């Protein structure tokens, strides 16, 4: 007979559903939270170098992720103005802005739906403190 799973006590953390959302194209990764975070950092800093620093990543890593996403989309996601004046030398293309906004909305909606389904299916049973 398998052991009985331990019961949640008052001090145990509550069960919370989690889900990962990403977009694929042709069976391969095309867009997800990582590239959305990178693009948002580029937009806010105006620089791939500064975005990488803000994210705690190397420039090479960040630029590589941007290039992979651009290849998946078949078009640029960032526009750089080398030697431009000021700090805003790199910006997102309109396509990149739409992708970030739409993806983050989709992700938020997916979290809502998963939480609603979890609540419907498990209700208070998932976090019952009674043995």
SS field, number of helical segments: 4
Helix content: 40-55%
Task: Write down the overall geometry.
Answer: elongated
CATH class: Mainly Alpha
Largest sheet strand order: 1-2
**Unreliable residue runs:** none
Number of strands: 4
Mean pLDDT across every amino acid position: 88
Rg estimate, integer Å: 21 Å
Number of domains: 1
CATH superfamily (homologous) name: Winged helix-like DNA-binding domain superfamily/Winged helix DNA-binding domain
CATH topology: Arc Repressor Mutant, subunit A
**In the CATH hierarchy, what is the architecture at level 2?**
Orthogonal Bundle
Structural class designation:
mainly alpha
Main beta-sheet annotation: 2 strands, antiparallel
> How many angstroms does the end-to-end distance come to?
18 Å
Order of helices and strands: EEHHHEEH
User: Which percent range describes the beta-strand content?
Assistant: 5-15%
Mind explaining what this structure looks like?
By secondary structure, the protein is mainly alpha-helical. It has one domain: Winged helix-like DNA-binding domain superfamily/Winged helix DNA-binding domain (Arc Repressor Mutant, subunit A), CATH 1.10.10.10. Helix content is 50%, strand content 11%. It contains four helices and four strands; from the N terminus they run ββαααββα. The chain has helices spanning 33-45, 48-55, 59-73, 94-122; strands spanning 22-25, 28-32, 78-80, 90-92. A two-stranded antiparallel ribbon has the order 1-2. A two-stranded antiparallel sheet has the order 3-4. α1 (33-45) crosses α2, α1 packs across α4 and α2 (48-55) crosses α3 (59-73). The chain is elongated and about 60 Å long.
């Amino acid at each position: 007979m398998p052991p009985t799973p331990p019961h949640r006590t008052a001090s145990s953390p509550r069960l919370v559903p989690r889900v990962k959302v990403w977009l694929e194209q042709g069976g391969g990764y095309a867009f997800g939270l990582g590239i959305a975070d990178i693009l948002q950092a580029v937009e806010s800093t105006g620089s791939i170098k500064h975005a990488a620093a803000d994210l705690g990543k190397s420039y090479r890593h960040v630029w590589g992720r941007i290039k992979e996403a651009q290849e998946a989309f078949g078009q640029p996601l960032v526009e750089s103005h080398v030697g431009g004046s000021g700090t805003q030398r790199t910006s997102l293309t309109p396509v990149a802005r739409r992708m970030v906004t739409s993806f983050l909305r989709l992700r938020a909606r997916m979290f809502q739906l998963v939480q609603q389904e979890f609540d419907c299916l498990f209700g208070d049973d998932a976090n019952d403190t009674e043995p």
